[in-house]
Amino acid sequence: MCSSRIGSGDVLDDVAALVAERNRIDARLARAVRAAELSQAPERDGLKSVASWLRGHLRMWGAEASRVVANGRTMEHLPALAEAHEAGLVTAAQLAEAARAVTPKRRAAAAVQGVDLGEIDAVLTAVAIEQEHDALIVVVRRYCNALDPDGPEPDPTEGRRMSVVRHADGTVSFHLHLDPVGAERFATAVEAHVQTDRPAGDDRTRAQRLADGAVQLADTALATGATPQLRGVKPQVVVKVDAEDLATGRGSAQLGSGALVSAARARWLACDSSIARVVMGPDGVPLDLGREQRLADRHVRRAAEVRDGGCVFAGCGAPTWWCDVHHVVHWLDGGETSLANSALLCERHHTKVHAGFRVQRLPDGRWHTWRPDGTEIRTPAALRSPPLVPA
Questions:
Q1: How far, in Å, CA of 6 to CA of 4, rounded?
Q2: Neighbouring C-beta atoms of residue 110, cutoff 10 Å
Q3: pLDDT tens track for 214-248
Q4: CATH number corresponding to 294-384
Q5: Residues of CATH 1.10.30 domain(s) within the chain?
Q6: What is the Cα–Cα distance from 147 to 151, expressed in whole angstroms?
Q7: How far does Cα 375 stand from its chain's mean position?
């Protein structure tokens, strides 16, 4: 029966129908996201952009969230292509490629040169519907080059970008795109470490040696203190591990990013690191930082970083080095400078909280966030529990 169905082509018809339906849904999503952007809807939940709301509330990958936002804008400038997308004939990836042709700068250049965007829209739509994806890339590139025959603007930073993808096993993939001069600088710095680390019998591949060189470049910068301070503290690699696991080398440890490594790896890191003792209570809250005197601000901060791991505002997740230590009960109102009265908040959400939003750590161990009108901001994780009433 299976062979007959495949041979009849029905299964391929199903695939084609599903892709078309996905294209239509992607188009509806892009339109809705654009509407949310124009109405500044994320501000209701204390967030600056739709992309940040998609990441924090819907767990969307950063690059994908940015693409959906960009596609919503592109559909306004390329109505024919947008119509084909809504009809299921054009994919979201094709629309994202076409977006490069209608950036604000290129739209301005087209207006100066008298280019009819309607004609460009028609050409891009025809290519997207009738030809392979790579053909659209070529057409878009030719159009962009025609708008700017003298090449890109002299500012090299405009073309630089890096994406970071964290995998389930804790490993990370980087994609780095640099201008020629920036690439030369980076490659020279990495190569210096590659060439000074070539032991006899080295059987590493070129790719492995380059990766090791990049890690050594980071190690050198951190060790020499050449990196800028973050929130008044020198950048440092943080590893959280139970004292027993550190002593025995069994169990696991957690990096500042949340990635898990073995306790044996933590022991290896501890050979060339300072160790701070943090005693945790039964609910996972730090109780004692190994000092006899009253908590100073830097110690409160360290404890808050261990406990919170980043901005506690619902849907944010900004890293610790973006965050301030906020007094949940303002010290002018009698609030203490203590861990129990502290919350990590990024600069934006620290401002939001002082403007009417509210955060509180409830007995369930989770932080909750309320809008100025008293309603709670509910992320997908929070939706699994019943609504809470702020105290």
A1: 6
A2: 18
A3: 888 877 777 666 666 655 555 566 666 777 776 77
A4: 1.10.30
A5: 294-384
A6: 9
A7: 27
